[in-house]
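User: Teach me something about this protein's shape.
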Amino acid sequence: MNRHQDQDPWFDDDAGPLVPAYALTRGRTSSNRHDLDMITLVVTVSTGIGLSRLEHEYREIVRFCGVPKSVAEISAEIRRPLAVTKVLVGDLIDDGYVAYRSPRPMNVDSADINLLRTVLDGIRAL
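Assistant: First, the predicted structure itself:
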């Protein structure tokens, strides 16, 4: 009997991805072509058929965004840092597989500023 069969595997699902983030993005740390932030919505516009990118994360993003998802949700789903997710989503936008829409800028008046200050105070209190 092989003594390795009785031992636990050297990794598990909780260990996370084995490919370093910089390898996945080929060293890129940002996507300069697209203004993506945490709440930017991303939706699939083309199926992953013919997707030339081999990394699993690209296919996972295309599958996951069948309905609009925020960049933060995508990051959580693929278990990658937000900066890496932005680069991957930017690549898929360039390739025509997903589209994005950034939130509209807010019209700021005195009532909006007071509301924002109240929210900020609440967050700081956490």
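Now, about its shape. The chain has a mean pLDDT of 77. DSSP finds five helices and three strands in the chain. If you'd like, I can walk through any region in more detail.
User: That's plenty for now, thanks!
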